[in-house]
Write a structure and sequence with these properties.
The complex is a heterodimer of chains A (238) and B (72). Chain A has 238 residues and is mostly helical. In chain A, 71% of the residues lie in helices and 0% in strands. In chain A, helix 2 (55-83) packs across helix 5 (151-166) and helix 3 (86-117) runs antiparallel to helix 7. The longest helix of chain A is centred in the C-terminal third of the chain and has 40 residues, at 198-237. Chain A starts with 21 loop residues before the first helix and ends with a helix. By secondary structure, chain B is an all-alpha fold. In chain B, 49% of the residues lie in helices and 0% in strands. Chain B has two helices and no strands. Chain B has helices at 5-8, 40-70. The N and C termini of chain B lie far apart (89 Å). Chain A binds chain B through residues 16-17, 24, 28, 31, 35, 39, 44-54, 57-58, 61, 98, 101, 104-105, 108-109, 112-113, 115-119, 214, 218, 221-222, 224-225, 228-229, 232, and chain B through 26-29, 36-40, 42-43, 45-47, 49-50, 53-54, 57-58, 61-62, 64-65, 68-69, 71.
């Protein structure tokens, strides 16, 4: 196992960033196309009306923010504690920040939909409250990172906190089974089969793919920026 | 008990009154007869918030990259 010096990260050369990010551009076009399909070419729900279409941005943001971003945060934090490679620390930091944006969108679009379908903006029930708690933990994770000077200490402390924060995700997943609440059980990933008509399922699948592309494009950009920042810091320190 | 028919008459037209959108009170809407509620305002609000959040974060990242490129 190798260790990381707190004064000089391994990446001594500064990577030159490109002016145009084609991956991000493709992801943005895909997201716009998926939203256009959801808004204009997907049937309106007979019970909930047009507000149900928030589903096509709310659920992909939830799946990506909780499972993909927090999953990456967990794996890269654990791996960092094991092999002490600062690229894993940057990956954890990047997935936490991008995941924070996705989870934030879940926490804001959810109440808009809830106001329309439940008649209230917010309910202090298990799924919603625990998601808010996870969001606050990830905010705390990023605040912790900005408050520690030493690169090695910062990486180690935040890896521990990132691991613990991500452990909340399985609990959030099970809240709709364990507790009574207003949040519905899974609709697409239902145990038997998806409880949606094919047109809605297709729109959801396209939204999911588009937002997944966007997640990885943002993650890649955030990771490149973190690499550049650390390399500049190392050069200035040298 | 004897109920006069005329006493029930004023209530009958009320059954067809509640067909308009009502977002001022505690309930989000009064369902329309024969169709889903008009909740398109909530839909647009949800999509606008999403666009602003993702767009804002993309702009933030691109500005960070541009600053890093200039060496600041």
């Amino acid at each position: 196992m190798s260790s990381v010096s707190s004064a000089a990260p391994r990446s001594a050369t500064v990577p030159e960033p490109k002016g145009f990010d084609a991956f991000l551009a493709i992801a943005m076009v895909a997201v716009i196309a998926a939203c256009a399909r959801a808004l204009f070419f997907t049937p309106i729900d007979a019970m909930l009306g047009a507000a149900q279409k928030i589903f096509y941005v709310h659920v992909p943001a939830a799946i990506i923010g909780l499972y993909f971003a927090c999953g990456l945060l967990f794996i890269s934090s654990i791996m960092y504690l094991w092999i002490k490679d600062e690229r894993l620390d940057r990956l954890a930091e990047s997935s936490a920040e991008v995941g924070l944006v996705f989870m934030g969108i879940v926490l804001v679009t959810g109440p808009v939909w809830a106001r329309s379908s439940w008649g209230t903006w917010w309910v202090w029930e298990a799924r919603i409250t625990s998601t808010l708690f996870l969001w606050l933990l990830v905010v705390g994770y990023l605040v912790l990172r900005s408050g520690v000077e030493s690169i090695e200490v910062r990486a180690r402390l935040s890896a521990v906190m990132g691991t613990l924060a991500a452990l909340l995700v399985p609990f959030i997943h099970l809240t709709v089974k364990l507790f009574r609440g207003m949040h519905p059980e899974p609709v697409v990933l239902a145990p038997e089969k998806p409880k949606m008509p094919p047109e809605m399922l297709m729109s959801f699948g396209l939204s999911m793919a588009a937002f997944l592309l966007l997640f990885f494009a943002l993650l890649r950009l955030r990771f490149r920026w973190a690499t550049l920042r650390d390399a500049r810091t190392a050069m200035e320190a040298a | 008990m004897i109920v006069r028919v005329s006493a029930l008459m004023p209530a009958a037209p009320m059954l067809t009154v509640a067909t308009v959108q009502d977002t001022a009170g505690k309930v989000a809407y009064v369902p329309k007869a024969g169709g889903p509620p008009d909740s398109s305002g909530y839909m647009w609000a949800g999509y606008a918030i999403t666009a602003v959040a993702y767009g804002g974060y993309i702009v933030l990242l691109l500005r960070r990259m541009a600053r890093a490129k200039r060496g600041r």
